[in-house]
Design a protein that fits this description.
The complex is a heterodimer of chains A (about 240) and B (about 280).
Chain A lengths: L1 E12 L3 E12 L3 E5 L6 H8 L7 E6 L2 E2 L5 H8 L2 E5 L10 H10 L5 H14 L15 H13 L5 E5 L7 H16 L3 E5 L3 H4 L5 E6 L2 E5 L24
Parallel strand pairs in A: 3-8, 3-9, 6-7, 7-8
Antiparallel strand pairs in A: 1-2, 1-4, 4-5, 9-10
Helix pairs in contact in A: 3-4, 3-5, 4-5, 5-6
Chain B lengths: L1 H12 L1 H36 L3 E6 L5 H12 L4 E7 L1 H12 L14 E6 L6 H12 L4 E6 L1 H43 L1 H9 L4 H37 L8 H29 L1
Antiparallel strand pairs in B: 1-3, 1-4, 2-3
Helix pairs in contact in B: 1-2, 1-8, 2-6, 2-8, 2-9, 6-9, 8-9
The chains are: A alpha/beta (about 240), B alpha+beta (about 280).
The structure holds adenosine-5'-triphosphate (ATP) and magnesium ion.
């Protein structure tokens, strides 16, 4: 099923003009997609529309079958519990440990206390930082901080991980590490959509790439002829025309 | 649980503002309390006076008994009237002598007029009603003069009204200030936690959950302010009792109501402020 579906979406900011127009694409369960394009082309806008920070001006966005146009505040909260979101600037709370930062996402969504510890331990291991749980963000490298942020995004078992230039603040080595981690997460079954400037690393990628320019989708490797299609995106989803 | 922890954390983060919030709520309720106390005590005083409120209609000399007893029947039928007693000249003399003790012999028989003593039903003993009934009785030809309630009952009533108005006015003014200060406190708390709130929203915490600690904090401030006001009012009342005159204090229901009032001011102030601040983030 399609987790995310854009149909003729336009977004016009009140101050700032048209950021997106006629955008249509779908992201399926377990899929991985890079979102590329020059600065200001609308990458962050697309991601914000997915996590409902913004609502479309025209067209519609469905996330796990729910139209974000009509979703109530409460529904938005409930949908976000199934999204993992990661940013360039990590957004960790400086006054608490890595573990506490991850646990925070569970605490504020009403997870029973006894379920929190094991889940935090599991995602810490998943991002390769099992030994750094008691460190404070300032005691961690940028790459490690981003891993903690990713762990926090994963702890609610999201359908899809949304990453907005997660390596923007990292050096080459850390960047490769994060790319690898996100692909591993995808291999484990979570869909990933990631905005990035790092063309170097995705130039010869076998993963789906959606390219934006001036708010339009100018290239989507899923839409290109079969020969060039990435393996995991071949299966068409005709039954998916209507949102669930 | 977490909300409670966060609510108390605010007291640590901005102790001065939090204390100010508590104190203004306390002042607000203290103002209500003091004037409420005055009102309660005046009410008690009035109650005992009202029990004695009588209209005395003096009957002109030489009025035939039939005329006055017919009037008695009429007056008794007034809806406000509890009882009517005929006091003859002789009865009046006996009463005057008893009341005046050693000066009793100044009265000669026949000097004091006979009268009709009228008692009103409870609920009809306020100055306006008393005056209205007195005027109606006065309209009988044989009634020379009517005496009733006197000015000081009216004065007490006026005092009670003034106390109530001043108390309510001052209390409301302080309550408004309290709401503003709580608003300012919450504003600072929300700012201090802006990052946290942003993350809470991203991971899907509901609005209600995000508001909870702030609303709870206002509530706690309100309860603390209410208790402080209760203590202040009680101390004042005790001090007056010791040095001046015995004063009545609020009954438990009214005291509880005061604390509940504080909690409501706190809740209102914080709910209002948190809604506004969260919308800004
Ligand atoms: N909140 C906003 N208000 C007004 N205009 C905005 C807002 N957010 C984005 N824009 C505008 O919308 C356009 C697309 O912005 P967006 O952030 O989606 O680009 P981007 O592809 O993420 O860029 P970058 O690679 O620099 O992050 C830009 O022209 C930007 O100025
Ligand atoms: Mg961006």
């Amino acid at each position: 099923m399609s987790l995310v579906r854009f149909l003729n979406v336009a977004k016009e900011y009140q101050r700032g003009g048209v950021a997106l127009s006629h955008a249509s694409f779908q992201l399926h369960k377990g899929e991985f997609a890079y979102l590329t394009g020059p600065s200001g082309s609308g990458k962050s806008t697309i991601l914000k529309l997915i996590y409902m920070e913004e609502r479309p001006t025209a067209g519609d966005v469905w996330v796990s079958g729910i139209s974000t146009r009509e979703a109530s505040k409460k529904e938005v909260s409930m949908i976000r519990r199934h999204l993992g979101i990661v940013f360039q600037d990590f957004r960790l709370l400086e006054d608490r440990t890595a573990e506490a930062n991850i646990a925070f996402a569970l605490e504020v969504t009403g997870t029973p206390t006894d379920m929190i510890r094991p889940r935090v331990a599991r995602v810490l291991t998943q991002v390769g930082l099992a030994s750094k749980g008691t460190s404070y963000p300032r005691e961690l490298s940028g790459g490690e901080q981003q891993r903690i942020a990713i762990a926090r995004a994963l702890v609610n078992d999201p359908y899809v991980l949304i990453a907005d230039e997660p390596t923007g603040n990292l050096d080459e080595r850390a960047t490769r590490g994060i790319f690898q981690l996100l692909r591993d997460i995808n291999t484990a079954g979570t869909a990933v959509i990631m905005a990035t400037h790092n063309l170097e690393l995705i130039r010869r990628t076998e993963y789906r790439t959606i390219e934006l320019n001036h708010g339009r989708v100018v290239f989507d490797s899923v839409e290109t002829p079969p020969a060039e299609k990435p393996i995991e995106a071949i299966a068409p989803d005709q039954h998916d025309e209507t949102p669930i | 649980m977490m909300a409670l922890r966060e609510a108390f954390a605010s007291f640590r983060r901005a102790p001065l503002l939090s204390a100010l919030g508590v104190i203004t709520i306390a002042f607000s309720l203290f103002a209500f309390g003091l004037f409420g106390l005055v009102a309660v005590n005046i009410r008690d005083a009035l109650q005992s006076i009202e029990d004695r409120v009588e209209i005395r209609a003096f009957i002109a000399d030489g009025t035939p008994v039939e005329a006055s007893s017919a009037a008695m029947g009429d007056i008794h039928a007034f809806p406000e009237v509890l009882s009517v007693t005929y006091v003859s000249q002789d009865d009046a003399l006996v009463r005057a002598r008893k009341e005046l003790g050693e000066f009793s012999d100044v009265f000669e028989p026949g000097v004091l007029p006979a009268s009709l003593d009228v008692k009103l039903k409870p609920g009809y003993r306020d100055p306006t009603t008393v005056m209205a009934v007195a005027n109606r009785i006065k309209s009988y030809d044989f009634v020379d003069d009517v005496r009733y309630g006197e000015d000081w009952v009216a004065k007490l009533y006026r005092l009670r009204t003034i106390a109530t108005l001043v108390g309510t006015g001052l209390g409301l003014a302080f309550a408004a200030v309290a709401v503003i200060i709580i608003g300012a406190t919450i504003r600072i708390m929300v700012m201090a936690r802006a990052e946290e709130i942003a993350i809470m929203r991203l991971v899907g915490a509901t609005n209600g959950f995000i508001r909870m600690p702030f609303v709870l904090e206002g509530f706690i401030q309100g309860v603390m302010g209410g208790l402080l006001a209760l203590g202040l009012t009680w101390a004042t009342s005790t001090a007056i009792s010791h040095s001046f005159m015995r004063t009545a204090f609020f009954d438990p229901t009214l005291a509880t109501l005061g604390v509940v009032g504080g909690a409501l001011i706190g809740l209102f102030g914080s709910t209002f402020a948190v809604g506004r601040q969260l919308r800004r983030l």
